[in-house]
Amino acid sequence: MSNSKTPPNGDIKWQDGSSALPMNRHRSPEALSREYDGIQQAPSHRMAGPNQSPAAAAAAAAAAGTSPYHRSITQINRAKSLSRPERQRPRTGMIHRNPSARHQQAKHLVDTQRFSTQQQQQQQYHRNQPMSNHLQAQLEHQKQQQQLMNGGGAGSGSTSIMAAPVVVEPPKEKEPKVLTSWWAWSAYLITCCFPSYIIRVWFGKTNKNMQQAWREKVTLCYLVGFLCGLLAYVIYGLHIHLCPTGRIGVPYAAEIDGQRVPVQREDVSVFGQIYSFNATQAYFGTQNLDLSEAFKGTEIGSIFNGDTRNACADYNLPSCSITSPTGTILSMPNGSCLSVTELEKWAESKGTLSYDWVDVRSDTNRMADANLGLVVDTIVNMTSYFKNNQTVFGTEVDNVLRGTRGNDMTYALLYTAAGKKAKDCITATYGIGMVNQEAGGCIADNLIMTVMFSVIIIIIIIRYSMACLFQWVISRKLTKPGGRSNWLAWRSIKGGNEDPANHVPGPYNNYGPMVQNSLPTLSSTGAGAGGGGGNNSPTRSIQGSHHGITGHQTEVVDTELYTVMLVTCYSEGEEGLKITMDSLSNTTYSNKHKIFFVIADGLITGAGESMSTPDIVVNMMDLTPEMANPKPVSYLAVADGEKQLNMAKVYAGRYNGTACVTIVKCGTEEERARGAKAGNRGKRDSQVILMSFFQRVLFNDRFCELDYEIFWKMTWLMDGVTPDKFETVLMVDADTEVLPDALTYMIAAMANDITIMGLCGETRIANKRTSWVTAIQVFEYYISHHYAKAFESLFGMVTCLPGCFSMYRIKSPKNGSWVPILANPDIILEYNENVVTTLHEKNLLLLGEDRFLSTLMLRTFPKRQMMFVPQARCRTVVPDEFSVLLSQRRRWINSTVHNLMELVLVSDLCGIACLSMQFSVFIDLIGTLVLPAAIVMTIYLIVVTAVTPNPQWQSIGLLIAILILPAVLIALTTMKLIYICWMIVYIIALPIWNLVLPLYSYWHFDDFSWGATRVVVGEKKGESHGDKEGQFDSKRLVMKKWKDWEAERTGRRTERKMNLKVPNSPAAFESSGKTYPYFSK
Known about the structure:
Layout: H1 29-36, H2 54-63, H3 100-128, H4 133-149, H5 182-190, H6 196-202, H7 208-242, E1 249-251, E2 253-256, E3 259-262, E4 268-270, E5 273-275, H8 277-286, E6 304-305, E7 321-323, E8 329-331, E9 338-339, H9 340-346, E10 351-355, H10 357-360, E11 372-375, E12 378-381, H11 383-388, H12 395-403, H13 410-414, H14 417-430, E13 431-435, H15 440-478, H16 490-494, E14 562-569, H17 574-585, E15 594-600, H18 613-620, E16 622-623, E17 633-636, E18 645-655, E19 658-665, H19 669-674, H20 683-698, E20 703-704, H21 705-717, E21 726-733, E22 736-738, H22 742-752, E23 756-765, H23 772-795, E24 805-809, E25 811-814, E26 817-820, H24 825-831, H25 839-847, H26 849-860, E27 865-876, H27 882-903, E28 911-912, E29 915-916, H28 917-929, H29 931-947, H30 953-973, H31 978-988, H32 990-1003, E30 1039-1040, H33 1042-1050
Parallel strand pairs: 1-10, 6-9, 10-13, 14-15, 14-21, 15-19, 23-27
Antiparallel strand pairs: 2-3, 4-5, 5-10, 7-8, 11-12, 12-13, 16-18, 17-18, 18-19, 20-30, 21-24, 22-27, 23-24, 25-26, 28-29
Helix pairs in contact: 5-7, 7-15, 7-29, 15-23, 15-30, 23-31, 24-26, 25-27, 26-27, 27-28, 27-32, 29-32, 30-31
């Protein structure tokens, strides 16, 4: 272990007086991120005096032989260094995890370290001064405990303080508590109808964590079902509730050739309710009455008793009968009335006749002869009443009825007590329909639907318009000299991109926009970058042709940023690996400014392969003879239990002339003895190896064995260029082919804008026509980039940088110093979480680590930007079997849902209110959850439109907009009509994308395996690299300062410090000779 000591107060202070970047455990990640990003003070600012500028402070630090990363005046108020095995430290982060289980492990580690510190203190007291009585009593008590544990007595042996250390047995693991949050309790209560016994026996969930994950999954499925039902209710149910069919009138008359004539229909009406003639005729047959065809299209309510509320009990009404147009009279033998209630049970009403005022007042010049009127909302036909000339309801009511012919009789009837009493009987006896008016509920329904569809159409149009604006204007300026300007670059300007101090070219980099004499086109000479380039003589770093991907001459800013090309591989074969590495080595970017960083995730042999993946990679390299047989070195892996300790071999050499470091995770000796998948810890662990390495380099923190192996071999291969000079990392999967100019475009965008912390290019499909499974994915890949990512890029907030092809900034220049970005401690601390227990955490960290890294970047640095660079392109191989696609999309969809849940809580993203990225994320989250309901309703709409004469034009317009606008986007961006064909294929497959895949994914929320995506020889179903096995022994992990490792390797100790220079430091990093300042060959 390192010779550095940990003071009792918890401040980390190394022997050389340096300290790591302040990492107060009591501060929030947001406060730390703002501090690192210069919102409070950049690291170099703290070294400046009250009247000293940050740049001056940085220059003074460089002249003094120190650096902003290597401060000797600042102490740290935290328990442990980030480089120590203390992952279980309780900390409030973006994942609201349960720290109870990790508290016990952390407590054990802290207790052990505290006891070790006490022993050191006691030894020091013994050497220098008498031991206090209190310490003597403590030591005696500890010795007695040790003797008891060893089976001995308390004897009266010597009290020497050099006794053997007490061996503290690790506490027995207790089953972790699962009901620790409101969400866990909610899931438990919602699924309380499923006892634990049922979940264990029926669903095979054997422990409490699995049972709780199942409960949370079911609760989320309930939530998805509720949102889908809510959407269906808003689209269809709200209309039925607010404007039911019974209240929608069937027109009594229509305009034909300028004249209003009654609509001819075969159905009959009873008090205005329309019934099928055949059904009514059958009912009459049950009453021994023959309803002839002469009654078709007539009102036959006069033979029925419509008084269902007994409002006519005090009136002597005439007998019930009906008369056909031909004069046929039909009535019951005893003159009684038929029951309208029985008719309603026999036949179903088709609607209600509605009358306009033109129908009521057929002749305004002869109102005295009108027989129709309006009572409340019912049209009454008083023809038989006036014809009989009887005052059935009394004189007052009779006068009102005759005096208000053809008008609204309601107010006149309500004016008298007799009229109020007779009103209900009149409508029940003489009603023939309702007035043609739109009910308030129908008005509200139309208003709600119109507003909702208008908002959706506006959102879609705005999104597509912003995507087109990005494609036409912004994307073209990302890589050109000068970059964006004016309102297009307001976020960049606010982030300090126009400050010349942030673009001063250093001795090893070249930020093109601020460099004089930089040429606007790619060099065709193929000259590489050398060392010592200054402001007036920028060194060329672009190799290859000046023709871009499309074959046209391009204008790209010159850049000289050192870049790591991270290639993570697992079970890929030689062909796929060779395609990826060939494409990267053949990029037009300078070989002197890029290096391969290949990580083989375990001793894995892919299905159908005769050689393991690590052997394939190593055999493809031209190994440096001095480094051909590396020994396994240790590092702290992202795992639980004893798997936290892992071993790896570091191979160094070249691939096609490009420097290449290959890390093979081989596992411990015990793990290799057990067999298959030794060393496998997952892709996230591979990424953390790189991120933690650069964090320790930039902060001059202690190295593990693997870190130091990478450091000195990487420096050897780069001819003295130490890892602290690298600013960007390109992350590529081992089945991706990068096009020649892609890396150049990405580096140019990074150099143009220092506020860009991450970006991605366009990923296209290499095996489009392999099967129908690959064919349906072509347009999905296109639209996800040129629509979704292009729209998000206008905000500078791409929510997901795909792991197969993306670039991150390791550190960023700011005010003459450096701000750690990908190497930020907050990001690494969250990203390398090794104890993952809740369903939410596992969906974030185990299924979609690439998307979660993007989420962490946006959360930690919301003022910086994540962009899409369409000029940078790659090709990847996609699943060609449906089972593999199902497994892949299960991981992607579930990861997307949980990451959007995290991002929607970040309130300081770009924009305000409905014009904000937070609102856009919320819309995306809801849209993802209701995909099954959306596709079902779409199919229903298409079917209804095909069979009904009155389609829902609003819904059809929305559907057309959704389907047509992508075609417009294709026409405006790529100008390739072939994508129209791919779009048609995609539309046909929409039930798969929006119904089958989401439903399968939601029901498998608690499935955290990679499924059939990567098949490995000897792998058992359900096996996971994250499963806990045994106890982690931190003593086996060696951590030392760089100079201690250097002394151990070279055999001589030096007091020289590993000083890290700022960008505007006058000292050059690259040596002109063959003697390098950091190591000896």
